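Q: what sequence does this backbone want?
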């Protein structure tokens, strides 16, 4: 049995003796974990841990499950680059109001309905995309409390931009769009590629999901089939104010400011953001590589900023506004890969990360053959604090 011990850093990149990009000067390093290739079926798949310092450490960058700058190359994913509303978002509810200038009058009595309204995506847009200027206006949601919140009219909120979908096939990136053409919804590949992409639509409202693409199937140039049906969702976020009184702001007597927190909170049905790879198969031989995942719920505070302002000079009291930017995600964590020749790779997660609550980090990767461990990697991590690790 072979044992490998690797140390990673979650916040800052680490120095390794490796290849250097002569153009950018960035370092690149690849640690092979397992290379699978079957001459009979033609199936192949590589698993590795890759490092790149290209671009440096970005503000608010979140480390992967194997550390900042590091990525585990083991499966595949289709990710949505959302432009406007999600293209496959569908709202079947008729709220009983029209999308013309009379909407304002009806809004006076039906703000609850309109407050919950969300428009269909590009695939299902029910209003013309070339709307006139009047219908694009925003207007207040006239509640009884006369809040100052504004919302765009249904025509103005119509999705006019197509999302870009990024497909990662074992390190190969292919981009595509989903069009609007009757009920066919053709897929247009943006890159020089001959792969074919299809998808399955499903009403997922019973799972509290407002989008409809349940899975993707990709066929490459060799005829191998990739199934992406492990969905990852994100909650739709809205900001709200809440007033918190009598919270100490600074040392000294009488320093109890009025604190207004602008917090993020989830509303309504969720949106599918990613579709993870579950299977690669050869349709002629029936052999396949399978990918299994664990579920994790993330409620992460990405950034928190505050603004303070004196409102009384005599006692030094302050009005403080705190802005909280949170994300609420249901994500997939790759846990197991099963190969046709009875090799397996197991990924073990441990702990609750300080920087990304709810998602553990990978502390062990094991390679098994017929249920027996042949080798494994131990991964150790550290956080930087000032100049100490």
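A:
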């Amino acid at each position: 049995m072979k044992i490998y011990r690797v140390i990673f850093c979650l916040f800052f990149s680490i120095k390794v003796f490796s290849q250097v990009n002569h153009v950018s000067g960035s370092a690149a390093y690849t640690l092979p974990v397992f290379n699978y290739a079957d001459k009979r079926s033609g199936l192949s798949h590589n698993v590795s841990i890759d490092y790149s310092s290209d671009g440096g450490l970005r503000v608010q960058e979140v480390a992967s499950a194997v550390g900042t700058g590091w990525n585990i190359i083991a499966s595949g994913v289709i990710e949505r680059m959302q432009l406007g509303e999600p293209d496959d978002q569908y709202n079947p509810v008729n709220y009983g109001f029209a999308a013309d200038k009379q909407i304002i009058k009806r809004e006076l009595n039906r703000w609850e309905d309109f407050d919950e309204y969300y428009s269909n995506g590009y695939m299902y847009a029910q209003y013309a995309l070339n709307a006139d200027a009047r219908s694009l206006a925003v207007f207040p949601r006239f509640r009884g409390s006369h809040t100052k919140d504004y919302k765009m009219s249904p025509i103005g909120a119509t999705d006019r931009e197509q999302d870009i979908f990024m497909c990662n096939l074992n390190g190969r990136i292919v981009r595509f769009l989903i069009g609007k053409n009757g009920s066919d919804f053709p897929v247009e590949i943006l890159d020089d590629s001959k792969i074919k992409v299809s998808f399955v639509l499903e009403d997922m409202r019973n799972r509290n999901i407002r989008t409809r693409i349940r899975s993707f199937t990709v066929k490459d140039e060799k005829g191998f089939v990739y199934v992406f049906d492990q969905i990852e969702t994100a909650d739709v976020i809205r900001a709200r104010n809440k007033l918190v009184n009598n919270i100490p702001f600074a040392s000294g007597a009488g320093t109890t400011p009025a604190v207004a927190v602008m917090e993020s909170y989830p509303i309504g049905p969720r949106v599918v953001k990613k579709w993870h790879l579950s299977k690669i198969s050869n349709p002629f031989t029936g052999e396949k590589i399978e990918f299994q995942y664990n579920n994790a719920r993330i409620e992460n505070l990405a950034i928190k900023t505050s603004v303070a302002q004196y409102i009384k000079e005599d006692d030094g009291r302050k009005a403080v506004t705190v802005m909280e930017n949170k994300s609420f995600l249901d994500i997939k964590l790759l846990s197991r890969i099963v190969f046709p020749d009875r090799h397996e790779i197991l990924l073990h997660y441990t702990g609750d990360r300080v920087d990304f609550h709810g998602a553990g980090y990978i502390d062990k990767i094991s390679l098994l053959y017929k249920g027996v461990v042949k080798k494994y990697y131990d991964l150790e991590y550290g956080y930087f604090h000032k100049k100490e690790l």
